[in-house]
Amino acid sequence: MKKPIVFSVISRKSNTGKTTLIEGIIPILKSRGYKVMTIKYSCYDFEADYEGTDSYKHFDAGSQRTVIVGPTKFVTFEKAEEHIDVEKIIDIYNDVDIIITEGFRHINKPTIEVIRECKGTKIYTNHSNLAAIASDVEDIKSNVPVFDLNDYNEICNFIEDYYLTKKIVNFY
Hints:
This protein has about 170 residues and is an alpha/beta fold. It has one domain: Rossmann fold (3-Layer(aba) Sandwich). Helix content is about 25%, strand content about 25%. The protein has four helices and eight strands; from the N terminus they run E-H-E-H-E-E-H-E-E-E-E-H. It has helices spanning about 20-30, 55-60, 85-90, 150-165, and strands at about 5-10, 35-40, 65-70, 75-80, 100, 110-115, 130-135, 145-150. The chain has a six-stranded parallel sheet with strand order 2-5-1-6-7-8, with helices on one face. The longest helix has 14 residues, at about 20-30. It is globular. It starts with a strand and ends in an 8-residue tail after the last helix.
């Protein structure tokens, strides 16, 4: 099976619109027939299940892996002995066409950096990984395409043409 294309969406600061951008491009990519997966980085510990539920009790009792299955979705909780590397997660899932990561600043994958004028216009991403910029700033100087932050169609066209179908192979 073909490995999925992995694309990272990052920004220098929080609350710049990364999630909104991803929310905007997922339905377009899906409408074009692509299977999309996302991986979100959180610097905080989190609970997706809550105390008192049966699944929480299973996991809390020491189950290595607990899966909750409902009529239209399922979720897996798995204990990790250490911080799991995003590359390991990517290697597990090969049944999708594209994996979009959010917030993994040091991943060695093509990256769309979100830049908002109110948060500062300095580019954070390593030059070799920077694929494009999505921004509300009109005059950013860059050797990669700069898209309007809300132009989801053009951003999807770029991802599709340069990475998914490779219709265009002359990378920047």
